Amino acid sequence: MTASTFNPQLEEQQLLAAFARQLEQGGAVEINLPGQPALPASPVLVELLKASLKEFQEGNGVTLLTSKRELSAQEAAELLGVSRPYLITHLLETGVIPYRKVGTHRRIAFSDIQAFQAEQDRQHALLDDIVADEQAAGMY
Questions:
Q1: What is the rounded CA–CA span in Å between residue 11 and residue 128?
Q2: C-alpha distances in angstroms, 55 versus 60, 67, 81?
Q3: Predicted local confidence at residue 118, as pLDDT
Q4: What is the Cα–Cα distance from 84 to 96, expressed in whole angstroms?
Q5: For position 27, what pLDDT does the model report?
Q6: Model pTM?
Q7: What is residue 2's predicted lDDT score, i.e. its pLDDT?
């Protein structure tokens, strides 16, 4: 997979944790490069940093992929946490997730994988709400 994966070293953990605490306090974030005037960090960059730092604190690495990238069936299956045969049979061939063929190989847009995951997350949240409502009413 053509991607950039970042795994912080153990000795970096304290520095990253301190940085995460400062970011959570809010306020403007500036980038200071030697010999250059300070640049304000965009909100998107700040959110990227926050999300990355959260994963680092949990001991996870972070992999960056561009949203325009196309994935192989194996890469898409790994991102979704399913087997490649399940992806092909139940999600691609049934039209749940769009794809295209290059020769005999399937290519899936990363943005389509993201859209599928977002819809799955939305459906799970709705089900969680239904269960919580039933529990509150003493029905479950």
A1: 39
A2: 5, 20, 18
A3: 94
A4: 15
A5: 77
A6: 0.57
A7: 58
